[in-house]
Structure formats: C-alpha cells, structure tokens
Amino acid sequence: MEATKEIKLVNQKELKNIFFEIKWPTVIQTASIYVFGVIGVIGLLTGHWKFLTFLWALLIFIVCGFSMNIGSHRLLGHRSFKTNRVLKLILIFGHTLSGQWSIINWVRSHRAHHKYTDTAKDPTNIKKGFWFSHIYWMFWYSPAVEKAILSIDVSDLKADKDLMFQYDYFLLIHFFSVAIFPVIVPVFLWNEALWIACLANFTRLLANLTQLSVFNSVMHSHGPKPYDEKTSAVDNIFAIIFTFGEGFHNFHHTFPSDYKCAEFGDLKHFNLSACIIDWWYRRGWVTDRNEATKSMIAQTKIKSGDGTHWFESENILSNPQWGHKDEQKIEEFFKDFEF
Ligand SMILES: [Zn+2]
Ligand SMILES: [Zn+2]
Question: Where is the Fatty acid desaturase domain (predicted)?
Fold first, then answer.
C-alpha cells in the first residue's frame, strides 16, 4: 500500500516537471500554424483564394527559403562568403518574414547543432527520434542544451549593428513582418477577404516551418553518407529539391564553411541557392566564397565516406557500386586531381 502511494507521488512529481519543461508559448504558436495552415490548404483546394493571393504566398515562401539558406545559414551562420550591406539587409528581412527567431538566436542554435551533432547537447538531436528532430525539439526546455547554446560564440554577429537592430527590436519587427505585412498586401492591393489573407499567411508559414524542419529530421535520417559515415547527416534528394539546394547535408557537416553547402553547386544538382550566390558573385555583389578543394573532397570520401557516390554525373564516381575499398578505381580517380 505504502509502495503504491510512493509510486503515485513520484509520477505526479514527474508530470509536474514535464509541465514546466514544455515551452507552452512555442507549442501554442506552432499548433496554430499547423491547424490554421491546414485549414488554409483546404481553402486553397476549394477555390477560396484569389490567384494573386496564391502567388503572393508562394513568393513569400520562396523569398524566406532563399533568405534562410543564403543569408542566415551560409552567409551569417557559417561566414562562407561576403556580400554588400544592401543584399545583407534584404536577406535579413527575408529571414524575419519566415517567423523564425532573431538571426543571432537562430545562428547560435545552428552553430550548437554543428558543434554537438548527435550528442545530448545537440538541440535537434536525431538520436531522440525523427519527430523530435522534426518538430518536438522546439517544445522542450533542456538545461544541458540551453547551456550549450549559450556557450556558442556569436560575437561576430553582435558586432553587426544591423543584426543587433533586429535582435533588440525583434518582437516588434517579428509581429509586423509575420502577422501584418503578408496579410495587408493582399487585402489592400487586390481586395482579398481578410480571413483568407490570414489563412493564406498561416499556410505559407506552415510551408516555411516544414522546409526548416526537414533540415533537422530528413537530412539526418534518410540517405547516403558519401563524405563522413560517422555522422547522422545524410544527402537526400527530396530535401535538396524542397529546400532549394540545402539537402547535401552529409557534405555540409563535413565541410561547413563551403558556400555551396555541397560538392556540386550547379542547376544540374538542383543547388539553386549556390547558383544565386554565383550569379551575385559575377555581378560583384558577393566576394570571398569559401570552397573545399576537389582534392580535399576526394581524399575525404575515401578516408571517411560510406563508399556511395550517388549523385555524381561525371568521372568514374558515377558508378554507384564503386566503393572506397577498390584500390584500382581509387588510383584512376586520383589521376584527375593534382596534389
Ligand atoms: Zn545538421
Ligand atoms: Zn550549417
């Protein structure tokens, strides 16, 4: 009898702890995006949206996607190239539209993910399961993870007055760019009904959120590991297309400072984000692109890859059966490179 009472007390205490470990505002915000986003999809499929509203939602989704990839991730998160201030400000605005945290907090968490990948300090640790990495990770307060995130150096970002402006006035900017701007444009410019404009906004927020969730879940669970077989990060064709070229995640975890986030930065490999950076580079708007050398990549594949070469369309590596244990093929392969 006594033992049962004790067990009940423990369970109640655990429940109380779980309650306080949940980030309720994030749960409510995310649940709203899912519920109203899906209602918005139903509205779209049943013909309630004006065509211009659909184009507007699609445009914001695309702008946010590229701003996150090119701006928050490659430019500011990894410092993999440099750009002028105007372009940087556009990318910051695009990030703000996506409904994510401030860039400083976003980068802090992303750098922690790179530093502590697959450990208890990794904010989106895939070892806790696919859905934890996909979405649940945002809902839990974990002292170990919070401590790890706060230990990450973001002094380079704090020295940037544009980023500090976004950080200091974040709630105000966030409210305007997530809840007001995307809604008033369709209402005032082409007389969309207010409730449809709101639902369309929730739907595109859901699309943006899903795009980012794919980074943490799909890109750490389903696909080959040509560059480092020890990490959970993988290359994934669906993720590459859905995220405009970010899905070469095994490569990215192996060479985080490469501006292409991939071995291949061309259209043939769906790396739209790298193509845009290259186009800006040719116009003189981008400089100092960091890149891993071909020989560095080749050696890494042989040393630590899983032997798959699934996405290569040139040279002998196009044979997916070829593995790094095949000495003769390795020799042939290295003939193409100078050391
Ligand atoms: Zn990752
Ligand atoms: Zn990264």
Answer: 56-257
Name the band, by pLDDT with cuts 50, 70 and 90, for residue 5.
low
| Residue 164 forms part of a structural domain | yes
Cα(164) to centroid of ligand 2, in Å?
21
Task: Tally the domains of the chain.
Answer: 2
Ligand with the closest atom to the CA of 252: 2
Do 209 and 68 fall into the same domain? yes
Confirm whether 14 is domain-assigned: no
C-alpha 129 – ligand 2 centre gap (Å): 20
Residue 236 CA to ligand 1 center (angstroms) comes to 12
pLDDT tens-digit readout, 245-289: 999 999 999 999 999 999 998 888 889 999 999 999 999 999 999
Domain end position, chosen among 216, 251, 272? 216
Q: Which two tokens stand for residue 324?
A: 């790094």
Residue 312 bridge partners (DSSP): none
Distance (angstroms) between ligand 1 centre and the Cα of 282 equals 29
Ligand 2 centroid to Cα of residue 252, in Å, is 7
CA 123 – ligand 1 centroid, Å: 10
Statement: the pTM of the whole predicted model exceeds 0.90: no
Distances (CA, A) of 282 to 39, 88, 260, 291: 43, 17, 15, 16
291 Cα to the center of ligand 2, angstroms: 14
Q: Are residues 126 and 211 in the same domain?
A: yes
Last residue of a domain, one of 181, 199, 216: 216
Same domain, yes or no: 249 and 192? no
Q: What is the mean pLDDT of residues 157-169?
A: 96
Looking at the fold, whether 80 and 197 belong to one and the same domain comes out as yes
339 has pLDDT over 50: no
The Cα 178–Cα 54 span in angstroms is 17
Length, in residues, of the chain:
339
Q: Is the separation of the CB atoms in 215 and 233 below 8 Å?
A: no
Residue 87 CB burial class (10 angstroms; 0-12, 13-18, ≥19)? middle
Using a CB cutoff of 5 Å, list residues around ligand 1, an ion: 233
41-97 confidence digits (pLDDT tens): 999 999 999 999 999 999 999 999 999 999 999 999 999 999 999 999 999 999 999
**pLDDT beyond 50 at 180:** yes
Its domain, for residue 87, covers: 19-216
Report CA(111)–ligand 2 centroid distance (Å).
7
